[in-house]
Automatic annotation (TrEMBL):
Domain of life according to the entry: Archaea
Source organism of this protein record: Pyrobaculum arsenaticum (strain DSM 13514 / JCM 11321 / PZ6)
Annotated family: Belongs to the UPF0045 family.
UniProt protein name: Thiamine-binding protein domain-containing protein
GO cellular component: cytosol
Residue span, Thiamine-binding protein domain: 6-97
Length: 100
């Protein structure tokens, strides 16, 4: 059950390397630890959430984890699909888009 699907990316800066894969892996681990349904893509990760408070908690946990890995700065890009009339599911959205 989800009220919103959030697509986001986190870009760590000040890591000394152009590679971000280990940071993406750690962010994904945080999502799993929270027990959230998600789907990682080439540039964004989609996650099913119920509230803005849950989103804030997720971002805070990811930020803390990436800071512990040495990130000096993090750029976030966030897109929120919020519905009030029905539940939202990542797989349903993808299936509808791929049908066309």
């Amino acid at each position: 059950m989800a009220k919103m699907v959030v697509s986001f990316s986190v870009v760590p800066i000040g890591t000394g390397s152009p590679s971000v894969s280990k940071y993406v892996q750690r962010a994904t681990q945080v999502i799993r630890e929270m027990g959230l349904k998600y789907r990682t893509g080439a540039g964004f990760t989609d996650v099913e959430l119920d509230s803005y408070a849950q989103l804030a908690e997720l971002l805070q946990r990811i930020e803390r984890a990436l800071a512990e890995m040495g990130a000096q700065r993090i750029l976030y890009t966030i897109k929120i699909d919020r519905r009030f009339d029905k539940e939202l599911y990542i797989e349903e959205k993808v299936q509808k888009a791929e049908k066309i």
